[in-house]
Amino acid sequence: MNFLKKYIKSNIKINGLKVYKTYNIFGLKFKFCIIKTNKYHINKYLRNIVPYNVVPHKIWEVEDKNSILKLDWNESTLQPSPKVKEALHNLVEKSDFFNLYPKTCNQELLKVLSDYTNLEQKYVQYFASSDAIHEYIAKMYIGESDKVLMLAPSYDNFRLTVQANGADIYFSNVDDNFKFNAEKFEKDINNIKPSFIYIVNPNNPIGYQLDKKYIESLLLKHPNKMFLVDEAYYEFSGNTVAELVKKYQNILVTRTLSKAFGLANFRFGYLISSEENIKSINTIRNPKNISTFTQVAAMAALSDTEYMTNYVSKVKEGREYFIQNLEKYSDFLQCYNSCSNFVLVKFKDFALKSKVFNY
Question: Which phi and psi (to 5°) does residue 154 adopt?
């Protein structure tokens, strides 16, 4: 062995993102790439994952943001309730909290959420955005090689979240005319046999909504499957399945204050579920990730629901006006009814679609 070591030498070199090992055998050199360092250190489920594509966020390049009507992320077109600004001003004046971590269990905030949802506090928990809730839900309920079914098209960031956990994603698509087909959906559930099902209700990006009784029927038919109902656009429809959490263990409901309440920048969301599910997810929840500014802003916004409902009423009026006027051009496009703050338009001609899009 020692004899061979005299004539066979090796060394390792790192060149960029690759590691090479070179063998010198009796004067002949052999070079091998033994590893690509970036993939070697990355979670194996993320090495070839398709990212969640975010459209350019150019609003932050505009100095006078009031001169722009930004609609592409479905944010509120108005600033939040004036009570939010007032509460934040009062908070900054105190200035004795900057060096402290935020409240980890804000009972006042939980009380406001309880009042708003008409549910006892034991059914509610708040988080740093509904995206953050989805990440905790994935950790708690979805494991390696679990089958997750998404009613599609849908909010794609959830797909990324569960794939990062090693789950297998399946899609149950609407029909060619963007209509939900209950028979097809339930057939997909029975064929795929997922352990977890994700439904955005009202749907994003189409805008349709599933009936509460229908969702309840799914919970009854599939008691061993967990259902996540994403109600990010709940306020624009006024219909919710939140009450079902008092009867069923296999439903999670997530909401946000980013849309109707105009607090997208604060990243605040909340989970509605059974007391047992809330207790379970609290075991892995990081309670200090919701800043004091966010907590105060959320309480102020939720204390002024009249401001929010007035805004929602205006959005609904605008939505109906928009749909009614587009229907005049039915020879060129199809406009879909919506329960959200956006409307899906299908053009009959790609050139016309591109022209309108660019305009």
Answer: -155, -175
